[in-house]
Structures are given as structure tokens and as C-alpha cells.
Amino acid sequence: LLSDRGDSRMLGLEALSVLTDVTKTTEAMAKPIARATILGKMDSAHSTSVSDTRLQERILSLALADIPIEADETHKRQDHLALLIFANAVDLLDSKDVSGFVATFHFSTGVPLEHHLLTRIGQAESSPHFAYLAARILGVVCRKGEEVFPVVDEKVLMKAQMIGTCSHAALQKEVGELLNTMAFQHSLKVVSN
């Protein structure tokens, strides 16, 4: 994955996508890999000689980078796998780790994670599956306690949901759940004030 060779990188991404998918491996196997992928650290019992932060940087740079219109299929496949790994991994983290990651990401990049994900969701017309994976990540972040409604433009989500209705059922479902979670969080905040 850390190699400059495209075929090696692709093989690493494919392996990580399987290792972070609890339907293809066990949760006990996937959790430490998810922590290394998203947080840049593994439990001491699962430590490796490879710098975990380099793995984190590679996955995030692929998952959150803008995809050029003229990108070849290999580049698109790598970006797709990185987003899939990110979605699988963030789903395995506990709420504390997700909150810490979101805060650290914002501090280190100066841009909220939600902004990157919303950009991907906004590209639903040209890349509905990428939008679905971004919505899945944003949904997990939201369900694990992060308030995203001040940052997220609901118009973008509603447009993506409409596109999902026409062409991508998983996108429609994920965005619908995200909108419901955001509405619930907002109502709790209003009631507590």
C-alpha cells in the first residue's frame, strides 16, 4: 500500500478492504486494523514495523482527494477502495475514537471532515457510489455523537437522496438515515436549550 507501484498499492487496498469488512473477517481482526487505518495507531499486541501513521495518511489522501474528471479507471478504483476502507473502519471505532479523529482531522487540515465528505456527496450525479460511501461515513460520524448539522448543507443531501431514488438505492437509504439522524440531533439540542 505504501509502495509507489500501482499494482502493489491496488493489492494492499484490496486486502485492507477485506480485512476491515466484518462480513468477510471477524470483528476481533478488523478492529485493530480499523484503528491503524483511521487513527494511525494499533493496539500494542497488534503493532507492526510499518509506520501506522503512514498507512493512515495514504488511505485518507486517497479517500478524500478530489478525483480529476480525466482520472483513469485504476485511479478511480483506488479512490473507491480507499473510501470503502475508510467507511468500514470508521464504523468499527467507538464514539470516543470517532470524536478524537474528527477533531484531530479538523485541527491538522484546517478543514472539517464533513466538508470533504459533503463535497463527495455533492458529486452524486457523476459518482453515486462514491457519494454513497461518503454519506455512509458521515452517517457513522453523526450517529456516534458528532453534531454535523451546523456544517452540512441539507440541500446537497436532499439532491443526493433524489439522485439515489432514481439510480442508487443504497445512496437514497444512507442519505435518508443521515437526514433523520441530523433532525433527531437537532431536536435534542433544541429541547435541551
Walk me through this protein's architecture.
With 193 residues, the chain is mainly alpha-helical. It has helices spanning 6-19, 27-39, 52-64, 73-92, 95-109, 113-122, 128-143, 154-167, 169-192. Helix 7 (128-143) packs parallel to helix 9 (169-192). The longest helix is centred in the last third of the chain and has 24 residues, at 169-192.
Broad structural category: mainly alpha
Shape: globular
| Overall mean pLDDT | 85
Oligomeric state of the chains in view: single chain
- What composes the largest sheet? none
The number of helical elements comes to: 9
What does the radius of gyration come to? 17 Å
Give the number of DSSP strands: 0
Question: How far apart lie the N and C ends?
Answer: 48 Å
Give the strand content. Answer: under 5%
Low-confidence segments, given as residue ranges, are: none
Q: Topology as H/E string?
A: HHHHHHHHH
Q: Helical amount among residues, as a percent range?
A: over 70%
Brief overview:
The protein is mainly α. It has helices at residues 6-19, 27-39, 52-64, 73-92, 95-109, 113-122, 128-143, 154-167, 169-192.
Question: Secondary structure elements and their pairing?
Answer:
Elements (H helix, E strand, L loop, with lengths): L5 H14 L7 H13 L12 H13 L8 H20 L2 H15 L3 H10 L5 H16 L10 H14 L1 H24 L1
Keywords for this structure?
72% helix, globular, 193 residues, mainly alpha, 9 helices
